[in-house]
Amino acid sequence: MILYLHGFDATSPGNHEKIRQLQFIDDDVRLVSYSTLYPKYDMQHLLNEVHKQLRLTDDPQPLLLGVGLGGFWAERIGFLAGIRTVLVNPNLWPEENMGDKIDRPEEYADIAHKCVTDFRTKNRQRALCLLSAEDELLDSSRSEALLGQYYQVIIDRQQPHKFPSLSSHMVAIKQFKQA
Question: Under the GO molecular function aspect, what terms does this record hold (predicted)?
């Protein structure tokens, strides 16, 4: 089972396309949707929804994959749920770059600080990170500098921020899921 967390643009047709691509790895790909506008409530909703989905599968190696803002959540929810994650251009600092899009961007900083102390150290090697060298929205070098200390990072030289095609990374994602 692969649980898919969309980015801020929840209705983007690219979400359906990525889910379809992920079905080449696992037939059971499930979208876990959330509001994107209310971080405090999104956190609780996502924790509950992921735990519910984990109870409904017999897959011994489920995977959580998040894109953009979904990557922010996937890293934390995956850690708290004890499952491996794939982070695709994760928005690690939404409080800095989404202030004009959501009501309370400071809640993201609050969530980041309230997560388990040194959670990335405790989660070492339990996430795979795909970053676009040509990300037009996020500073991928900043993300690489932070996440590269803890996780395997793959830099993609072709894909933009929304990462429409996972195809060149399917083997790496499948191997990571099965590891």
Answer: hydrolase activity
